[in-house]
Amino acid sequence: MGRIKKMAEKMDTFLQRWLEKLNLTRKMLVLYLGCVMAPLVITDTFVFWSIVRSEQDNVRHEMENVVSAVEYNLKTEVERAATLGKSIYLNSYINEFLTRNYDSELEFYNAYLAFMEDTLFESSLGSQQMKIVMYADNPTIVSGSEFHQLGRVKNTEWYQEFSQYDQDVMLHCYYDTSGLLEASPSRKVSLIRRLNLYQRDGCEKVLKIDLDYSGMIRTLESMKYDFPVYVCEDGKALLSNRSDQGMLKPLEPFAKRQEAAYSHEFQLYGQEIEIYVLQTRNNMLYYIEKNLPMVIFLVCINVLLPWLLVRNINRSLTHRITKLGQVFSRGCEAEELSLVEQVTGNDEIAVLMRNYNWMAARQNELVQTVYKEKLKERETDIARQNAELLALHSQINPHFLFNALESIRMHSFLKKEYETAHMVEMLAVMERQNVDWGNDDVTVKEEVGFVQAYLELQKYRFGERMSYQIEVEDACRMYVIPKLSLVTFVENACVHGIESKVAPGWVFVRVYEKQGRLCLEVEDTGAGMDEKTLERMREDVENLSIEKIRQMEHIGVCNACLRLKMISGNEVKFLFESEQGVGSCVTVKLPVESLRKIERSGRKRT
């Protein structure tokens, strides 16, 4: 008893822990399946099984009636033949006719005509649908009509079977292929009897009565049974109410014995007769179809009604609890707690929702009070970060003397050193851009101008060792980006790519829009980077911050990447590709919705 109690406690603990892992919807489903559906299914299965058993008993009783009726009709038909055979057996006039010696065929014929004048015998033959043939071991009989010499049939199957039979009357079922009485082979059900009442005459006489096989088939079919019925003898199908058994068809073994739902055997004049009844609609689907109204009623009462109730109870609970959970989730992500809208009902969940709304409203008031105090601190922090950003700008500002550059340019121009004058002009353009940090934003068109000036300077420096190509889509020229963001990547390509390689190299600059992003692409055919250096660069760019930049010695690329992250809300994507000895490629992808664009008329679009 104690062991059973412990097992029950363990099972209870297991179920409790398992249910605690399920959400409320699944718990309601378990409740519906375990406490409603399972008992109903068991109960309905038992009820339906009882109905099916009752139906099966009724069917079996009906089959018994069918077998009894078939047996009665078959025995009646055979007994009619037996009665007729007995009357012939007792008729001394027939016995005398069969044993008499005739001097000629004419004498036999005259005697036959006299014999047929016996109206009682002739009328009895006419009232039967049976074929009567009498055989006698009398060589003076002329074979024909109802009388034949016995010697003609001594080699036939039925006579060989009867000669070994120790009784005077035998029922024999066979397929007659002798061709003595019919031209075509056919099935026969014959009652064979010895006419040995007068044994002193020394003549063997046999009576053979062939039952009306076609009539027996018609009788069986006229009963109109719903079940297939087969009458078999010696394991072979003899009669059936189906069309698969015909008079001219040879007897075949009964192959549907395993399909029989009911069978019966009985003896009839020395033959073992079996009657089989087949049931073609014995599956569960048949009984469901037969009792379909009751099945529909049970399904509606026992399945649909509980399901509707549990479903609505589940909605009443889980829908409102889920709604409350969503409000909690939004409150954790937002700056203030959300309120539950349209609180309905008077149960515990409704009370919980109302109390939450009161608490959330009170909490929001307290947050607003604290928020005002923290706002000033946040503004101060933003100002500090802007100052640090400007400090970063100042780190990349070169200190060139623009007046000296202009003097050198004019001096070169006067000496007709036009190439030198052009290079000094490009250098001045670059340095003015570096020094002027009043506005950190430029259009792509302006930034590409700085890039071209820088590349002209590098072309002058490297000569034939460097070539460049710039491709910019017209639709991208008026997007606003941080100053020197593109020039920085071009500078990195020239310094670390082209300069580090002895062989001539190219620098390609492409600006285009693809899939809602502005793409800035700088590619060089310079020295490239090894995989370790490339991976370190990717990690540095991924984890950029102002504090980290302060600790770096070379901040050009990282500075540009940080500013691009800031203007895009950290939505920018950087793609670094490089192969040592082949070259490098940097692709910057900025979401266009985060960029401003200056229209052709000069109007700015956010």
Description:
The protein is an alpha+beta fold and 606 residues long. The protein folds into three domains: 55-290, no CATH class; 291-391, no CATH class; 439-605, Histidine kinase-like ATPase, C-terminal domain (Heat Shock Protein 90, 2-Layer Sandwich), CATH 3.30.565. 53% of the residues lie in helices and 18% in strands. The protein has 17 helices and 18 strands. It has helices spanning 2-20, 24-90, 92-99, 105-116, 119-126, 157-163, 213-222, 284-290, 292-333, 348-395, 402-414, 418-435, 444-462, 485-498, 531-542, 546-550, 556-567, and strands at 131-136, 147-149, 169-176, 186-194, 205-210, 229-233, 236-240, 260-268, 271-278, 441-443, 466-472, 480-482, 505-514, 517-524, 573-579, 583-591, 597-598, 604-605. The strands form five sheets. The protein has a five-stranded mixed β-sheet, sandwiched between helices. The chain has a five-stranded mixed β-sheet with strand order 11-13-14-16-15. Strand 15 (573-579) and strand 16 form a beta hairpin. The longest helix has 67 residues, at 24-90. It is elongated, with a radius of gyration of 57 Å. The model is unreliable at 394-403 (pLDDT under 50).
Number of helices: 17
Q: Number of folding domains?
A: 3
Q: Could you estimate the helical fraction of the residues in percent?
A: 40-55%
Beta-sheet strand percentage?
Answer: 15-25%
Please identify the structural class as seen in this structure. alpha+beta
Q: How many distinct beta strands? A: 18
Q: Which sequence of strands runs across the widest sheet?
A: 2-1-5-4-3
Largest sheet: 5 strands, mixed
* Uncertain stretches of 5 or more adjacent residues: 394-403
Rounded to the nearest angstrom, the radius of gyration is 57 Å
The mean pLDDT is 79
The global form is elongated
- What is the straight-line distance between the termini? 80 Å
